Amino acid sequence: MSVERARDRDDLRLDGYLPYRLSVASNAVSGLIARAYQDRFGLTIPQWRLICVLAEDGPSTQGQIVARTVMDKVTVSRAVQGLVRRGLLSRTDHEADGRSHVLSLTPTGRQMHVQIAPLALAYEAALISGLSPDEVALLKRLLHRLQSAAGQLGGEAVKL
To answer: Selecting from 3.50.50.100, 1.10.10.10, 2.60.40.1840, 3.30.565.10, what CATH number does the domain 43-153 have?
Structure first.
């Protein structure tokens, strides 16, 4: 974006700034759900995401989980450690890469997923209850496009 175009816009107003609005909305939703997962199951959001990914995708490496969830390596590593300590996750050596491990849900971990999934779906239903099915579909498409655009811009400098 050129400097002239930037000047043509109104001054930056935080409440109207889309990245801020997305962050605030994400924090509000994550905080609500995090309290439920913590209170009922003793799980953090990263731990829940890890359980969900392994339930969906099956055994995976930490690198695969980082790529799938866009969580940083340290966050995934801490989540793995906590879940292994609780017996919800097993970690085995990777046959092809001696520096890597394959993570799998234990039977207890799979049962935890079965218990939490209905709660997650209920929260989602409550959050989108004021939206029409078309609005929900549009929101999902737009979020996907924004995530894709952010990924593309990640390695590029924005021109001012």
So the answer is: 1.10.10.10
Residue-range domain boundaries for the chain:
43-153
Residue 130 is predicted with a pLDDT of 96
- Could you tell me the pTM of the whole model? 0.79
- In angstroms, the CA 52 to CA 107 distance is 14
- What's the rounded Cα separation, in Å, for the pair 143 and 97? 35
pLDDT of residue 132: 97
- The torsion angles phi and psi of 93, rounded to 5 degrees, stand at -65, 145
Whether the pLDDT of residue 98 is over 90: the answer is no
